[in-house]
Inverse folding.
């Protein structure tokens, strides 16, 4: 069984301090964004047109502004936005009117329009705009709209939207130069726009200004990642990790002071419990932990902030070690001698283990660590690889008959399997059903997200059994590869057990491996690796005729090629 080196790369994602986006905004397309923009512009024009056509007396600019402020102060943001829109139509060069319009739109969560108004205001009169930012409400609304608009635009497929997002992110950094969220988004946008020189320049400026800021090292890591300079990638991500570890310890010391704790073991337990509660994204659970378990209700705000900081830094540590591990794997690919390959594999192993220390649920890190053990070989390493693949499957695959899913939801999913799609063996679930599945697990206290695929590899027109149907996070190619590696690890374990004369255990593992290979072949009947591996298992079990038939099948496939 060929052991080709694999690696997965993380999507550059960070937790945000800005208000969380509703899922409908996160999934919005670039076409929809442009439709929204057009609709809002039409609304503003329509308001002006209505005034002209109806023959109403012209309302002075100052009256529009005063009326808008009154509506705004009373929380009537729709009416305020209407008045400020008239004011902008009367005087398009008024930075004041645009700022107030931006504030009203921000309250209405119309972030794209709000950001556009703030941005135009800053260009019209930067001095006045900066003066207005001293107002706490204005500052907050500007930061929120710029941040959220950037996030909406950066997921578009239109490079023009990315350029606008970059501009908005730079606006955030003018207001808050050390914003972790904005710097992270800035780096991602530089990558998307292929502005690598700007990414490097900004990173070096950050390090010169503050050598303890881990984001400077992270941004340099990203820069060298795109240059395929793997040694430099590893150096800078590990440098970032050291700075994050320092911050982590500082926050733990702050936690100890707030709770007046001197016992290190107790402090570590509380730190872990706060991070777990925060990771679950359940504010009520975190509040209950602080108020009831820790008996610290008066300190709820400060402890909530500490939990946020601990969680964010843990996420950064996880990502830093993960990318350092990927760099070490890539260096392994470049080496020719077994000794140097083993050196870099050991580096990668240590780094992925560190990534998992900070996030035990990181499936990417588990996958890469499993493959390192698989590549190293030997019974102990193969067993560890098999265990890790089992953990990935448990986290990424759920049976349709799982008791945590109500029967009506099971039926709704099962009815998606029509005669027209049955031969495909899988389909992508409609988003609304994916959300329902996630909600059901959430109600049971389990966070399982992104179960977007429904698989029915053994279902035929003559069978109506849900037992072989399952949900998965992974797309077909990724699932096929996962089960191929899992089956290979099972087969290797079986071979090791056989060498140790543990015949019965070996036979059980060969049988389990065949089940994995059968799933691969159900998804892709032409997977030659699965055919060869299954043939070996059958032969080891003495099922020579079945193995011979697979060999003929393999020969026919090779002739087709």
């Amino acid at each position: 069984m060929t052991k080709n080196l694999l690696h997965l790369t993380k999507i550059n994602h960070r937790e945000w301090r800005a208000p969380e986006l509703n899922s409908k905004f996160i999934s919005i397309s670039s076409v929809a964004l442009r439709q929204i923009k057009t609709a809002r512009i039409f609304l503003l024009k329509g308001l002006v047109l209505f005034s002209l056509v109806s023959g109403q007396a012209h309302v002075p600019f100052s009256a529009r502004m005063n009326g808008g402020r009154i509506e705004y102060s009373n929380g009537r943001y729709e009416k305020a936005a209407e008045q400020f829109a008239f004011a902008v139509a009367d005087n398009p060069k008024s930075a004041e009117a645009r700022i107030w319009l931006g504030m009203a739109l921000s309250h209405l969560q119309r972030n794209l329009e709000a950001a556009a108004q703030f941005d135009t205001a800053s260009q019209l009169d930067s001095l006045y705009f900066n003066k207005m930012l001293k107002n706490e409400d204005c500052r907050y609304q500007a930061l929120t709209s710029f941040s959220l608009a950037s996030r909406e635009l950066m997921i578009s497929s239109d490079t023009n939207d990315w350029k606008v997002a970059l501009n908005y992110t730079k606006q955030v950094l003018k207001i808050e130069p050390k914003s972790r969220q904005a710097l992270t988004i800035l780096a991602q946008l530089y990558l998307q726009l292929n502005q690598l020189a700007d990414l490097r320049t900004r990173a070096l400026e950050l390090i010169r200004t503050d050598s303890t800021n881990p984001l400077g090292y992270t941004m340099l890591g990203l820069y060298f990642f795109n240059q395929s300079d793997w040694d430099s990638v590893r150096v800078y991500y590990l440098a970032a990790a050291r700075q994050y570890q320092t911050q982590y310890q500082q926050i733990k010391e702050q936690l100890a002071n707030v709770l007046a704790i001197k016992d290190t073991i107790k402090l570590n337990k509380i730190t872990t419990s706060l991070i777990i509660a925060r990771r679950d994204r359940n504010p009520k659970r975190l509040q209950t932990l602080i108020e009831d378990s820790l008996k610290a209700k008066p300190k709820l705000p400060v402890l909530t902030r500490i939990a946020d900081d601990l969680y964010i830094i843990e996420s950064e540590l996880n990502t830093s070690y993960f990318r350092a591990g990927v760099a070490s794997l890539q260096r392994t690919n470049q080496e020719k001698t077994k000794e140097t390959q083993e050196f870099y594999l050991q580096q990668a192993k240590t780094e992925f283990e560190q990534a998992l220390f900070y996030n035990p649920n990181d499936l990417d890190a588990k996958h890469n660590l499993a493959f390192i053990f698989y590549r190293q070989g030997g019974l102990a390493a193969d067993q560890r690889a098999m265990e890790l693949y089992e953990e990935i499957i448990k986290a990424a695959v759920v049976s349709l008959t799982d008791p945590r899913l109500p029967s009506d939801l099971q039926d709704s999913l099962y009815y998606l399997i029509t005669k027209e799609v049955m031969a495909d063996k899988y389909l992508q679930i409609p988003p609304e059903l994916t959300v329902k599945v996630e909600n059901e697990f959430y109600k049971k206290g389990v966070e399982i997200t992104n179960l977007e695929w429904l698989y029915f590899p053994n279902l035929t027109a003559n069978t109506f059994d849900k037992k072989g149907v399952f949900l998965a996070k992974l797309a077909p190619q990724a699932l096929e590869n996962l089960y191929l590696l899992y089956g290979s690890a099972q087969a290797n374990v079986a071979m090791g057990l056989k060498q140790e004369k543990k015949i019965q255990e070996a036979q059980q593992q060969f049988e389990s491996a065949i089940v994995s290979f059968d799933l691969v072949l159900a998804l892709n009947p032409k997977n030659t690796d699965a055919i060869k591996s299954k043939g070996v298992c059958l032969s080891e079990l003495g099922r020579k005729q079945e193995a011979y038939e697979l060999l003929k099948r393999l020969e026919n496939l090779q002739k087709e090629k």
Notes: Residues 1-55 have pLDDT under 50 and may be disordered. The radius of gyration is 29 Å. Residues 252 and 271 are 7 Å apart (CA to CA). The beta strands are 397-399, 426-428, 453-455, 470-472.
